[in-house]
């Protein structure tokens, strides 16, 4: 089921008009692509809480502009530098026949049973938290799952290991060998091992002096 959001057309444009909208708890926005750009306005609280929903950022949305619905993607938004206020939102119309380029969040699962964590005491590092993908709008996933169940200490999961949904491709700027997640030995453990080794080497030298 598509996430739906309602909007109305902006009758007046410009910096002053946008400022007045924000004071009235409204957010100026624009929808573009596959036709003329349309200036719209949104209810602030509705879009503010929608932006907190991870799926809102990586889903095909149903935008209702005064009764006319169209499929769009969230492309950008601006927040106030220090207030919890949405300043502007950009939407792009979706062409069902054309592939879209999107950033999709990665969900890491089974970290607690990974051998590198459970047996090796390692710490998981998320090298990437999102992945750039290309696909048709109908194939767009809201997230991609990364299973860490088999990850050993000192090993990594790479782009080439990621299981992508049907119809989804990784964007070309990613490389197959790029790491997505790794399990490393904790820094404290490395330092402790180095200290123990240094002390072990120093002991025979001390005894020789005696």
3D architecture notes:
This protein is an alpha+beta fold and 210 residues long. It folds into two domains: 3-94, Ribosomal Protein L25, Chain P; 100-190, Ribosomal protein L25, C-terminal domain (RNA Polymerase Alpha Subunit, Chain A, domain 2). Helices cover 20% and strands 39% of the residues. The protein contains four helices and 13 strands. The strands form three sheets. The chain has a six-stranded mixed β-barrel with strand order 1-3-2-6-5-4. β4 (61-65) and β5 form a beta hairpin. It is elongated and about 75 Å long.
User: Would you identify the CATH H-level superfamily of the largest domain?
Assistant: Ribosomal Protein L25, Chain P
What sort of overall outline do the alpha carbons produce when their principal axes are compared?
A: elongated
The CATH architecture of the largest domain would be: Beta Barrel
Largest sheet report:
6 strands, mixed, barrel
One letter per element, helices H and strands E, the order comes to: EHEEHEEEEHEEEEEEH
What is the level 1 CATH name of the largest domain? Mainly Beta
Strand content: 35-45%
**Order of strands in the sheet with most strands:** 1-3-2-6-5-4
Give helix % range: 10-25%
**How many separate domains make up the residues?**
2
Number of DSSP helical runs: 4
Q: How many strand elements?
A: 13
Poorly predicted runs are none
Mean pLDDT: 89
Helix/sheet category: alpha+beta
State the CATH topology of the largest domain: Ribosomal Protein L25, Chain P
Question: What's the gyration radius in Å?
Answer: 25 Å
């Amino acid at each position: 089921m598509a996430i739906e959001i309602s909007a109305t057309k902006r009758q007046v444009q410009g910096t002053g008009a946008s400022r007045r909208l924000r004071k009235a708890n409204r957010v100026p926005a624009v929808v573009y692509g596959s036709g003329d750009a349309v200036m719209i306005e949104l209810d602030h609280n509705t879009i503010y809480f929608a932006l907190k929903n991870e799926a809102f950022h990586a889903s095909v949305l149903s935008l209702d502009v005064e009764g006319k619905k169209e499929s769009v993607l969230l492309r950008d938004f601006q927040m106030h530098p220090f207030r919890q206020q949405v300043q502007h939102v950009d939407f792009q119309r979706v062409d069902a026949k054309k592939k879209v380029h999107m950033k999709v969040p990665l969900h890491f699962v089974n970290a607690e049973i990974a051998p590198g964590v459970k047996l090796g005491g390692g710490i998981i590092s998320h090298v990437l938290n999102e992945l750039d993908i290309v696909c048709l709008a109908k194939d767009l996933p809201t997230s991609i799952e990364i299973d860490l169940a088999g990850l050993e200490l000192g090993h990594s999961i790479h782009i080439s290991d990621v299981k992508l949904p049907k119809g989804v491709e990784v964007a070309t700027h990613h490389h197959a060998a790029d790491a997505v997640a790794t399990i490393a030995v904790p820094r404290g453990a490395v330092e402790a091992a180095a200290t123990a080794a240094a002390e072990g080497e120093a002991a025979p030298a001390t005894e020789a002096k005696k």
